Amino acid sequence: MDNLLKREKLAAGAHFNIVSDPRFKFNRITFGFFVPLDEEKASLYALLPRYLYRANAEFPKGKDFNNYLASLYNARNDFEVASIGDTQFLGVSMNFMDDSYALHGEKITEAAAKALFSCVFNPLFAGGEYDGSLFELSKREQIEAIEAEINDKRIYAANQAKRIICKGEPAAVNPLGTAQRIREIAHVTLHEAYKELLESAVVEIVCVGCNDFSDAFKIAKEKFSTLERKEIVPCKSAYSPLKTAAAGKTEQLPLLNQSKMVLGFKTENRNRAALTLTSNLYGGTLSSKLFLNVRERLSLCYYCWSQVNKEKGVMSVSCGVEETNIEKAKAEILAQLDSVKQGNFTDDDLSNALLYEQNNIKTVNDSLGSMTWWYLTRIYISDIKSPGEALAAFDTITRDDIIEAANSMKLDTFYVLSPEESEHEPESEGAE
Which CATH number belongs to the domain containing residue 405 in this structure? Predict the structure, then answer.
């Protein structure tokens, strides 16, 4: 089923969004802040959702708050910190069963919405009173989340490469912050950051589920009516400029069994659908050129795939590779991109890339979380379309569009994560 988003303005820079779908028995409300990624403030802002979602002034103890949510037919709250291009997203959410399934006619939506908005508007900051152990727990968990990045070498390599690809840009900032800055945060400083968000951050509340969310809207409207909003800070992303010479860097880690390699390409092409299909055809599926040739035919990589960041105009190729095959794999990855540039792909190749993307988009409606994130990102890019409406953009993409998008890709970064004992150095293609 396709969904049409209903959007209401709450205050300057703040909107309430509703997507109703009768297939669901549950609902989800996400209160999201959008702020520019900033190295000085990212750690402060990133800690806030983890602290806010745990408790509030009405339920200052996490245990009591959890017990209350359990009484609402096991309602669940969570949080999210992520980046979209040059923007940091901070979200606090509530998942709950719909009123129509309550055994005794309880108003679950109203109660759950009040609990969520209480976390956001009445957190443990009032009068300087707060649960010190909860604050320290939030800091410790945030530090652990940051330091855990290195445990997944694929993710670590991809993020390290991104920081080189977007060096000097907001997108290079870790949206989770840094462990050192998190350690230095005092409760009063976090309180000041919280007030900044309420006053000036772009706010998007997204409600997804079978409810009409009228109760939640009334509560949100009331909360914002007493809030003074000042000089809303706009959020946008810019395409990453191509370096004058491609950057090459090798990083070494102990106890690494397999090298990781990331190639970053940049484009000025603005056709989002064409960029998506180009990446799918090149390395995004099991029928792509990278998978069939670099991994299967030549056995140069354990995995090899591409993805495109449409907000930054960046396509990255990630692979796991033996040390001795790094240069061979790099050469073949570049050769396969040249093949796409020359139009050496079949109609079936293009059809498979399209079917893969169509399937991805059609599955958005399968969960409340994926629907929420879909509409948050569509709101962010100022192109609010349902998944069904977005599918239409791919119908007009031609072979020429793919060839044009591929030819716009220029190598920008070559990053390798290698075992510490290795003496291999990648062929340098310019200063970082």
Answer: 3.30.830.10
Tokens encoding 424: 């291999």
Read off the pTM: 0.93
Structure tokens at 133: 């152990």
C-beta of residue 5 within 8 angstroms of C-beta of residue 205: no
Q: d(Cα 54, Cα 68) in Å, to the nearest integer? A: 12
In a domain, 308, yes or no: yes
Residue 211 one-letter amino acid: N
The enclosing H or E element of 357 equals helix 347-362
Domain around 293: 247-419
- In 238-352, DSSP assigns E strands to 247-253, 259-266, 303-309, 314-321
What's the pLDDT tens digit per position in 238-284? 999 999 999 999 999 988 889 999 999 999 999 999 999 999 999 99
Angle at 391 between CA 210 and CA 165, to 5 degrees: 105
Q: Are 87 and 32 in contact (CB under 8 A)?
A: no
The DSSP letter of residue 231 is: S
| Strand-pair category, 26-36 with 202-209 | antiparallel
Is-contact 17 69, C-beta < 8 A? no
The residue among 195, 225, 255 that closes a domain is: 225
